[in-house]
Amino acid sequence: MEQPKKPPRSYKGLKQKQKAKISDYMYLETQRFFQANGKMPDIDEDYRRIALEVSKHIPGLRVPIEEIYGVYVRKCPHIVERLTVSGLPGHIRFHGEIKELQRIRAERKVRTKHRQKRPHKEPGGSPRTARFPWDRPWMSVADISLEHFSTRGTR
């Protein structure tokens, strides 16, 4: 039996980190568009093309392209201004860098050995460390009472 497809999510319903990821892809795709065409996006067709490219990067979030397009139209003036004045924000990495970091992290995860657990110690420890007779679970009640009364005056 087939699993029903999950309904699309709204952009407002996403977590802040997911929205930041979408915004980073908007910056990257705007810069890629500028490098390919020599101009910043300025018409509706350019906006739609960039929104489509952004949606390809985030298929798991299930956000409709129309919502990504609406968000991009609102953010585009700021993105264009930021890219023309100071370039790409420092925290955003290019696609190649992201893929390389993911590959390195996956290799590191495979190579790391898991720590072995320490062997479990018996409760109570050795007889010398057990200060009181009731701390010695290996002794019977009769032994405890006899020992307790016989060593009481020696200390």
What is the overall shape?
A: elongated
Q: What proportion strand?
A: under 5%
Helix count, per DSSP?
5
Q: Helix amount, in percent?
A: 40-55%
Major sheet attributes: none
**Structural class by helix and strand composition:** mainly alpha
- Low-confidence parts, pLDDT < 50 over ≥5 residues? none
Mean pLDDT: 78
Give a count of the beta strands, DSSP E runs of length 2 or more.
0
The Cα radius of gyration reads 33 Å
In short:
This protein has 155 residues and is mainly alpha-helical. The protein has five helices and no strands.
Which characteristics define this entry?
155 residues, mainly alpha, 5 helices, 55% helix
Structure report:
- The structure is a single chain.
- The chain contains five helices and no strands.
- It is an all-alpha fold.
- The chain has helices at 16-37, 44-57, 65-86, 95-111, 141-150.
- The N and C termini lie far apart (78 Å).
- The protein is elongated, with a radius of gyration of 33 Å.
- α1 packs across α3 and α2 packs across α3 (65-86).
- Helix content is 55%, strand content 0%.
Write the layout of secondary structure elements.
Blueprint: H1 16-37, H2 44-57, H3 65-86, H4 95-111, H5 141-150
Helix pairs in contact: 1-2, 1-3, 2-3
